[in-house]
Fold:
Amino acid sequence: MLWIHGIAQWLHFFFTSRYLSARHTRKGCQVPQSTYEGQHVHCIYCWSPSEFCICGWADRIVNQLPVHIFMHHKEASRRSNSAHLLMMSLKNVRLDMHGVKHQPTQWPSDSTPRPLCVLFPSEDATELTPNDRGNFDRLIVLDGNWRQAKKAANRIAKACQPIFKTLPLKAPSEFRLRQQSDVGRLSSFEATARALSILENITYEERMMPLFRAHVRVTMEARSRRGWHRQNSQST
Ligand SMILES: [Zn+2]
Structure:
């Protein structure tokens, strides 16, 4: 039933967010063609400017290992955030916000039959390998900046006995939408795709990454257009 809860969470998130005003018709992804003076109407599903809707790139995979995302609430309004793409890519996924004032987070309990796998480089973290397959109850992804993720990791460590894992160093991140101080850092989407490729099926990364790459591409394009509009309005 995890997926039902995930969908409910996500619907609540969408309908309380500022993207509610965006008009969208799902059929054939016929989103409205935007815009005026560099302002974009955004698709409420993929968050892309409507003329660049990438919903058609999503390949919803029925993942056996549930994915549970803990997103810091400040990420919810950042259009470059990649966790929302996980909601489009996977069927067995749940999202919980944390850090919201006066709204307690439902951190995981230790009542699960198998331990939780938390992707976070804590001191006792070890590298994920195919030998870890079948060992975990679910995969926990911490979405936010380093400080926010560390806070969430500490809360989860207090709430249950998770196993912290890191990913093997592979290709660098393709996430060009934010500057990273550490070249080894990955976006939540990339980290999840790589973890599921190790823990479940090697094809995950190959199937999930086209949506992510499209997201990066259209967001960069939208940013360059905004810059063009800004320059033009300043010169007139
Ligand atoms: Zn879309």
The radius of gyration is 18 Å. Residues 58-230 form one domain.
